[in-house]
Design goal:
Helices cover 27% and strands 26% of the residues. The chain is α+β, with helices and mostly antiparallel strands. The chain has a four-stranded antiparallel beta sheet. The protein is flat, with a radius of gyration of 15 Å. The chain starts with a strand and ends in a 10-residue tail after the last strand.
């Protein structure tokens, strides 16, 4: 399984609801086994720059690529890109993730 996590920030005074609505388009793409759009609670003591998070789970790389190729993905990008500031994405394979203390 592949986990896909994307962090977004909205410029000060920007329209976070418009960004969230644009990201919600992604939930219509059928290739994820789970897809969530979350609003950051800003509870981290070191950094509060993240406003929204997209969290997705995909059976494999092919499902993630099909998600990215879907027309709704482009529609979401077209709506969100001009409204957001930062975007940081990370994908990882759950099978190779560290799940217990090493060393």
């Amino acid at each position: 399984m592949i986990r896909h996590i994307v962090f977004f920030s909205v410029p000060e005074g920007g329209d976070i609801e418009a960004v969230r609505n644009g990201l919600s388009i992604l939930t219509g793409i059928p290739h994820a086994t789970r897809l969530e759009i979350g609003t950051c609670q800003k509870s981290d003591h070191f950094d509060q720059s993240v406003d929204l998070v997209v969290y997705g789970e995909f059976e494999d790389e092919a499902a993630l690529e099909a998600y990215r190729a879907h027309p709704l993905y482009k529609e979401s990008i077209d709506r969100v890109r001009p409204l957001r500031e930062m975007r940081i994405a990370a994908d990882y394979d759950v099978a190779t993730a560290v799940t217990e203390r090493v060393g």
